[in-house]
UniProtKB/TrEMBL annotation:
Residues 10-62, 63-113 form the Myb-like domain. InterPro entries: Homeodomain-like_sf, Myb_dom, Myb_TF_plants, SANT/Myb. GO terms for molecular function: DNA-binding transcription factor activity; transcription cis-regulatory region binding. Residues 10-62, 63-117 form the HTH myb-type domain. It comes from Panicum hallii var. hallii. GO terms for biological process: regulation of lignin biosynthetic process; response to other organism. The keyword Membrane does not apply. It is found in: Nucleus. This is Uncharacterized protein. Gene3D superfamilies: Homeodomain-like (1.10.10.60). GO terms for cellular component: nucleus.
DNA sequence: AAGGAGATCAACCGCCGTATT
DNA sequence: AAATACGGCGGTTGATCTCCT
């Protein structure tokens, strides 16, 4: 009954940090044979490790397509936005950050971003200004609370959509394996995602931006979030009145948090002489870039993001601080 | 220079959903 | 249908590094 017995509990397996020799063995084996079944890999590669440990070492460290080092501002923004949408679903967030591992993103969130948001008076879990923060937080508008009330619903909506995307992708892959490949699709028709609210032209942007099609499609919701920033900004300023539009409310919360947090932080910084000028400049640049994204999408369209807006690389660059 | 505190991050642990027998 | 393995995920830990006193 069942599969062959697992030998994972086998005694004498090594734990702890990997040595360069072990890395070399694992790399050499995978380069030559691929990883195949992780369970049987250690024995074949001559490693006294469990398969799980090998898989982890490969996916988090040895894989050649891993980018290491400091996170860029754009990456930070993406993480914050996606965390607001998806919560602690690090693997889902990692699919939108090419070459970053879920473990790295999780670590970065826990050691940097979470603290930074908390310091700014934003609850890193709800992405709302903390009730006990006072100041700008206490002065939150009715719209902010209205937005908060919809947060859960919106996140669930987006989460369900992402799951549907994944399911459809799996099914498509299975179909592709079972039948000969279709002729190349026309450049811009008939490829709309059945679940995404993103137009093909928007999805295609990623595919044409140096990523493969699958990755481009996977990143599409990130664009959705950026567009939502624009929608929310319009909503907050009476540009639109579609209160039930998915994404808009959530983005409203984020934008509101960003502004309130920045205001509060700057006020605190002014009062507290211990906060250095450099830190203030960093914060200004950080939050103004978020606002810049909003403005970029606003200027191209008040209700939706055009392809021109997204293809403009300047949209992802830090804006000059104009506080 | 030394020691303590805090920050960082690689790796482990335990759980869960899916695949396999 | 049930039992079991496998792969993946998120939470947590602990060794190491860096900064501060």
């Amino acid at each position: 009954m069942g599969r062959t017995p697992c030998c994972e509990k086998e005694a004498g397996l090594k734990k702890g940090p990997w040595t360069p020799e072990e890395d070399q063995k694992l790399l050499a084996f995978i380069e030559q044979h691929g990883h195949g079944c992780w369970r049987s890999l250690p024995a074949k590669a001559g490693l006294r490790r469990c398969g799980k440990s090998c898989r982890l070492r490969w996916t988090n460290y040895l894989r050649p397509d891993i980018k290491r080092g400091k996170f860029t501002l754009q990456e930070e923004q993406t993480i914050i936005q996606l965390h607001a949408l998806l919560g602690n679903r690090w693997s889902a967030i990692a699919t939108h950050l090419p070459k970053r591992t879920d473990n790295e993103i999780k670590n970065y969130w826990n050691t940097h971003l979470k603290k930074r948001l908390a310091k700014m008076g934003i609850d890193p879990v709800t992405h709302k200004p903390r009730a006990d923060a006072g100041g700008a937080g206490a002065a939150a508008s009715g719209a902010r609370y209205r937005a908060a009330a919809h947060l859960s619903h919106t996140a669930q909506w987006e989460s369900a959509r992402l799951e549907a995307e994944a399911r459809l992708a799996r099914e498509a892959k299975l179909r592709a394996l079972a039948s000969p490949p279709p002729p190349p699709a026309p450049a811009a028709s008939g490829l709309e995602s059945p679940t995404s609210t993103l137009s093909f032209s928007e999805s295609a942007l990623f595919a044409g931006a140096g990523h493969d099609d699958a990755l481009g499609a996977a990143r599409a919701p990130a664009v959705l979030t950026l567009r939502s920033y624009g929608e929310a900004f319009g909503e907050q300023h009476n540009f639109g009145d579609d209160a039930d539009a998915p994404g808009g409310f959530l983005a409203g919360v984020l934008l509101d948090c960003a502004v309130a947090g920045a205001e509060q932080r700057f006020a605190a910084a002014s009062a507290d002489a211990s906060v250095g000028e450099q830190q203030q400049e960093e914060d200004k640049g950080y939050w103004s870039s978020i606002l810049n994204m909003v403005n970029s999408s606003m200027s191209s369209s008040s209700s939706s993001l055009t392809s021109e807006a997204v293809t403009d690389p300047a949209m992802y660059l830090p804006a000059a601080a104009e506080f």
